[in-house]
Amino acid sequence: MTLLKVEKIKKQYIHKDGIVDALNNINIEINNGDFITITGASGSGKTTLLLALAGLIRITHGQITFKDKR
């Protein structure tokens, strides 16, 4: 059973130097019982992804489905 499905999500921020793509076309599918880790360099979007998954920030584009609910 799919627990979490992330489809083509994007998060953009407006910065004084222009638009910043914090997340760009992210796709993830996590099934019940899966164990995952999120790794990457500083500034690569790990925290932005987790905030989006938790519903604490609004994504710019795409879709997040948790237990068949959007």
Short description:
With 70 residues, the protein is mainly beta.
Helix-strand layout with pairing:
Blueprint: E1 2-15, E2 18-31, H1 46-53, E3 61-66
Antiparallel strand pairs: 1-2, 1-3
Mean pLDDT reading: 96
Strand order of the largest sheet: 2-1-3
- Helical segment tally? 1
Outline the biggest β-sheet: 3 strands, antiparallel
Computed over alpha carbons, the radius of gyration is 13 Å
Name the structural class.
Answer: mainly beta
Low-confidence stretches: none
Oligomer: single chain
Distance between the termini: 16 Å
Q: State the helical fraction.
A: 10-25%
**Element order, helices and strands?**
EEHE
Explain what you see.
The chain has one helix and three strands; from the N terminus they run ββαβ. It has one helix at 46-53, and strands at 2-15, 18-31, 61-66. Strands 2-1-3 form a three-stranded antiparallel beta sheet, covered by helices on one side. A hairpin with a 2-residue loop joins strand 1 and strand 2.
Q: What attributes does this structure have?
A:
single chain, 70 residues, mainly beta, three-stranded antiparallel β-sheet, 1 helix, 3 strands, globular
